[in-house]
Amino acid sequence: SRAVVQDSQVAQRAGIRLGARKDINEVIELGIDTTIFNPGVPKGEFKKKYNLPEASKIIFSPRTLRPLCNISEIIDTINLTVKKYPDVYYVFCSSTKNKQYENRISEEHLGDHVIFLGYVDNEKEMPYIYRDSEIVISIPNSDSSPRSVYEAMACGSNVIVSDLPWIGDKFKDGKELFIISLHDKIQLQSTIESILSGKKRIDENTEYRRIRQILDYRIARKQLKRIYFDVIKGKRK
Known about the structure:
By secondary structure, the protein is an alpha/beta fold. Helix content is 38%, strand content 14%. The protein has a 6-stranded parallel sheet, sandwiched between helices. A two-stranded parallel sheet has the order 1-2.
């Protein structure tokens, strides 16, 4: 190969371990379309569709229902959160089902506060869910370049993530994300409650500007174009 491109430093390190060359190896994150995901998306559309009260607060998990994403840890927070904030609804979306999670919700009588959406169209529906979500949670055991996190940030949600290598230096100052330790259930619960109480929150315009600055897909397109023409012109051998 004359050039190797991957979407994160996590993927880059894995590729090098498998034998990829280091000298022509670049990270170009695919990015998102900030004309679709942004604070200008109208609020209230998702709540109207599912007949949720206008004043209700949504906690959204956009990740798959596989064990990797620690959905059970999110479910662990429901009972205590709802007791303190009865107007909260937890929303999960995944093209795959998980009967274990669904049975648990039923057995613990949490169904009135939980919505399982199944598959959601990323461009036509997802922006409205992000926009109506007070909190978006993404706490998997591992990750590479999570577009769902970037999309939620661009829409102005308060996003909680597990402290993983993909974060790098992009968001370490804590101005755009709530970063918690992996598997720290106490920290997850306290962060949720701090956001719902209004003690903590992220400025939506700060989030959007940062995403647009470094993760708009047009930036990736320009970088890929540069590498392509370097190869064509023989600058990469």
